[in-house]
Amino acid sequence: MSSKITMGSRTVPSVSESENSTVLRFADNRLLSLLFGEHDRHLARIEESFDIRISSRGNRVSLAGDETGVALGTKTLNALYRRLEKNLPVDPAEVDAAIRLAGDTRTNGGEKSNMASDISIRTSKGLITARSPGQLDYMKALAHEQMVFGIGPAGTGKTYLAVATAASMLITGQVDRIILSRPAVEAGERLGFLPGDLREKIDPYLAPLYDALYDMLPADQVLNRLNSGEIEVAPLAFMRGRTLSHAYVILDEAQNATKTQMKMFLTRIGEGSRMAITGDPSQVDLPSGTISGLTHAVDTLNQIDDVSVIRFNSADVVRHRLVTKIVKAYENDDKKHQGKGGAKAKK
Question: What is the pTM of this model?
């Protein structure tokens, strides 16, 4: 029977000889309270995620459990400690992010955990780092490619990170302006039926983009840049005939653009410009039988140089954990119905 060690408000078993275990030694004891979290809640979250037990004495942290769990817990703690060494915050959201990155099965999770705090977007309100494997790939693409498609479910940060990149490039002078666009209504963009001037008509549809902007820049800067034209909001229907040079152009909810609208939008790109196109192909609001311009564009352009397509899945959802479970449930339901459809087709 193993002995017990008390850590803050938790009592955990010491390492048993029959289990896999490892001991980590951290150089700066002052960072450990931040690493562990209040009442060791960060350690508790890591234990729960990987089904392991964690105990500490001084600057030594012991992990015990099955081999895979111990390895993932080790990657997570090392990644979080590296953040602290760089004076970056560690809160419950960052702990969840480190857990997602360490447990990534698409590529080397450990490598991505180490890279997450190295690749960042700097805005006037602080530093933004990746919180999922998909976000890490997306941030690299946004930084280097002229045109990036971010495709996947809600809560993966597609729009937020595109706006953050645009704000960062505007602040540093890499672009002269930001242009935000979105299909305003599901059929025909009948803006004339809404009260007010153009800005007042389209503001309700662009609220998520404004929310992201206000997270990146002080409110007075957003208002001043909107008034000066450095930040422009435009419904997709009003983009025709323009050439957008030295701008960062973002099309949100692109799954609701038709093939014709998408071609028109993509061909607006001009000298020194970048484009980010985001959307969720599973949430198309176009009339039945109308092909989504987003799906068509990705299938058509994914082999072109300077065009990058990043696909997110439920593992990249960075909102409340319940959102991840909801997205997974809908993904499973879609697969189930696709399977039934395939079976009928074979008959």
Answer: 0.76
Identify the CA nearest to 57 among candidates 35, 96, 29: 29
Q: Nearest Cα to 58, choosing from 92, 21, 84, 23?
A: 23
Q: Kindly report the CA angle at 153 between 158 and 150, in degrees rounded to 5? A: 35
Q: What are phi and psi of 90, to 5 degrees?
A: -125, 110
In sequence order, which residues have a C-beta less than 8 Å from that of residue 301 and are 6 or more positions away?
147, 149, 266, 307, 309
* Tally of CA atoms within 13 A in the half-sphere of 286 that contains its CB: 21
Structure tokens at 34: 């931040």
Assign 299 to helix, strand or coil: helix
308 Cβ contact partners less than 8 Å away, ≥ 6 residues apart: 141, 145, 147, 148, 149
How many Cβ atoms sit within 10 Å of the Cβ of residue 346? 6
pLDDT values of the chain reduced to their tens digit, one per residue, 347 residues: 344 444 444 444 444 455 788 999 999 989 999 999 999 999 999 999 999 999 999 899 999 999 999 999 999 999 999 999 988 889 998 999 899 888 776 555 455 555 555 678 887 777 888 888 899 999 999 999 999 999 998 889 999 999 999 999 999 999 999 999 888 644 344 445 556 666 666 666 677 778 888 888 888 999 999 899 999 988 888 888 888 899 999 999 999 999 999 999 999 999 999 999 999 998 888 888 889 999 999 999 988 988 999 999 888 888 767 777 787 788 788 777 776 655 554 44
